[in-house]
Structure to design on (556 residues):
């Protein structure tokens, strides 16, 4: 599948459209298989005991899938998450997290994919998520 | 069903165990039917355009179900979310949000329930979530 | 909300469009709050030990939500399930099951709702499901 | 990871414990990566128009994950599905379906994994599912 945006274009898009959170994320990989996004974990992402919070993991899964869809359809800010299902499987470490997303369907109205979330330096995934995005009609 | 914690005890528990986020939430109702929790929406919960962010809605659903479970099992901080499924149905307003949770199963190992999320002043729900919590064995 | 089909019309529709399974189901209630559908449990729905099988519970949840959507949009056979999330909470009895569905969103493209599944004669729900239907454009 | 049952042992187990459905399925692969299960599609699995029914796809996902868990824990019939989330992404063909399951977590109480479902002869997946199994304590 042709990619319509490269990593620099997607990071610019994040800064422009989501300025509050853009600095939390780095895109590490974007190719035909999917995308890899790093959550740069800071104090605000942690719970007492030093684990990454559930909402922070949700945010990483959501951003990773959003960017994977954008890479395939081009910059359309209005794509919205309609469903997210997450299984929290292991206690995350207090390190950066990596979200590895793949797009399983890219239809005219809906995109579907899944994301594995990893704590950096830990082999088994911490969480898995599947997400559906609604894609706005072309204007 | 007997409730093992009242609202003041649950709010104290939140402050003690989750100091970073406790101020975001107010428990408005806790009874045999479930629990109502308010997300006091501030700038940090908003996306450009003035909608409450997905991670903030996830956080409200998660806290509401957590508190509904705690009210029924007493203060056990180690209950952990194992699954969350959210449907985002409507664009939220830039107002406070209310999460109305009910517990559908309270087993020895797992608790299951669902949450409807409302933007204050808007009748139809903005999102629905179902969550599973793993309950630690009594020590 | 106006209902566009009554119970007899929906049962005729089931017989016409889904002849293999129509006899498994009876619509017991359809009103502004939602719909109640009975799964007439027979041997083919049971697992050894006399519990209703997972696929049979999935079928009941899916049919109940489908009919609740149809009642609201009229007979459009092409509405398709795009997502189903089920929590299996208790062991069902070997009796009929009842699915109580409510529609939480009825948009132009997507309908979202949830279903509680009960074993007849048992008070707590056996399972809960949420489903999304994709609604075809009007021809 | 060591596998505790081979394909012949798992097929014997299916015949013994789930005689009504065992003939519907064939295990095609079982290794450290997961398991591949074939649904031998017959008239009873089809909807009008010749597509495999939702309940049949649910059944394939559920059996594939069940067998993947069994291969890793040995024959314990009481493992039960507690959650299943399915995204139906494409219209299936009227051919056999293949379920490719992987186990993402195998804990003492819960096993989590996901399954991609394919129509034989069609490259993109028809559906994806994630499932959680509750594992009974060793007797």
């Amino acid at each position: 599948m042709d990619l319509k945006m490269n990593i620099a274009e997607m990071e610019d898009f994040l800064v422009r459209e989501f300025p509050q959170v853009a600095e939390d994320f780095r895109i590490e990989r974007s190719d035909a298989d999917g995308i890899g996004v790093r959550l740069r974990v800071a104090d605000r992402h942690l719970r007492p005991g030093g684990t990454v919070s559930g909402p922070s993991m949700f945010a990483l899964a959501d951003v990773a899938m959003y960017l994977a869809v954008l890479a395939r359809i081009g910059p359309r800010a209005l794509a919205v998450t309609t469903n997210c299902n997450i299984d929290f499987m292991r206690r995350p470490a207090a390190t950066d997290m990596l979200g590895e997303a793949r797009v399983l369907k890219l239809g005219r109205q809906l995109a579907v994919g899944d994301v594995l979330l990893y704590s950096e330096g830990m082999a088994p995934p911490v969480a898995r998520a599947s997400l559906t995005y609604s894609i706005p009609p072309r204007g």
